[in-house]
């Protein structure tokens, strides 16, 4: 797939893509902070290609994990779990959407995420 004149590799998990458009030989939306249009891809298929608002695109990308019953990749599992619990207020009593590791202990909640949430809560109460 070509995105802004560059070849883009789409991954299996839900993906938020910012669109680079050529405008008078200049690139408009050269980075995610200034992009004017976003796309969502799941399983290497673009499922929505006309999302002008980042917030809506981000919410749709995150919801795709639940709609398509996709586990969080291990590499970004802690980040997605933090967003799930703090931004989207989805707090299951047990289980996690992070893919199981081959080795190691499986936690109900990532210890790093738990630590960060605790530090944020303590900061809010002490300030």
Descriptive overview:
- The chain has helices at residues 54-67, 77-87, 111-126, and strands at 2-3, 6-7, 15-18, 21-23, 26-28, 38-42, 45-51.
- The protein is α+β, with helices and mostly antiparallel strands.
- The protein contains three helices and seven strands; from the N terminus they run βββββββααα.
- The model is unreliable at 1-5 (pLDDT under 50).
- α2 packs parallel to α3 (111-126).
- The strands form three sheets. A three-stranded antiparallel beta sheet has the order 3-6-7, covered by helices on one side. A two-stranded antiparallel sheet has the order 1-2. It has a two-stranded antiparallel sheet with strand order 4-5.
- A hairpin with a 2-residue loop joins β4 and β5.
List keywords for this structure.
3 helices; single chain; 127 residues; 3-stranded antiparallel β-sheet
